[in-house]
Amino acid sequence: MNGIASGRGICAGVLALPVAALLAFLALAGAPGQYLLTDAVALGIALAWIALGRMPQSDLAARILLGALILLLFVPLLTGPQINGIARWLPLGPVQLHAGMLAFPAIAVLAAREPRWAPAILLAALAAALLQPDGGTAFAITFSAVGLYHVTGNWRVAVVCIVAFFAALVATINGELAPQEFVERVFQTAFAIQPIIALTLALALAASFALMLFAIPHNRPARFALAGALFGFFIIALMNTYPFPLIGHGAASILGFGFALGLVRKEAP
């Protein structure tokens, strides 16, 4: 197995490990069959992309993709649906996808290859998170910026860290919604059924985070930016009623992180 194939295998494991734990949790907790089907199909699509996907080879193509993903963050503001003035979902037939979880992981990876423009890219994503408002995405942007600053030492990214943190607090306060079972408060639900289930979910996500940070075949800035995004989504879900990434029901995080993990360089001829 060559290096690229091995790297793709690691990326597949990064995604499959927590989602397999999620599917087991949903089955044991008696979640609706539609939840398991939706998440399993999303995992299949994401793994197929990880196996076959490519990072755009030209700067122009990468920037076009990046612009499209940033615009995607703003789409819910135009299309809805809205709940109490909050609009952060993309309607896709019977499924509603969380825009931030779907688009931002790849934005983090693409921003990491644009050191000059990364602060502006992150701030553009942050503007969407504030308008929706979406504290989960705002905290993902915050910790993605922290990861990027840790690697690059770019003072402008440090400024983004500070701005994004306070913006995330505002978005969180203004964007609270009632929790949905199996989406938010996952550890409380799992622990009530069997503590070992909650521990399994935590260990699976921790292993995924560690592999994302140190083992996937992305460059170091991209690894830290992507892992920072995962940590940001997770930490706000732990503290408030926001969706858990990869270990809570929802296709958006599976597809979003799967797409980002599949953005690897083309194999050498």
Automatic annotation (TrEMBL):
Keywords: Membrane, Transmembrane, Transmembrane helix. It comes from the Bacteria. It comes from Parerythrobacter lacustris. The chain crosses the membrane at residues 9-29, 35-52, 64-83, 120-149, 155-175, 196-216, 222-239, 246-264. This is Cell wall polymerase.
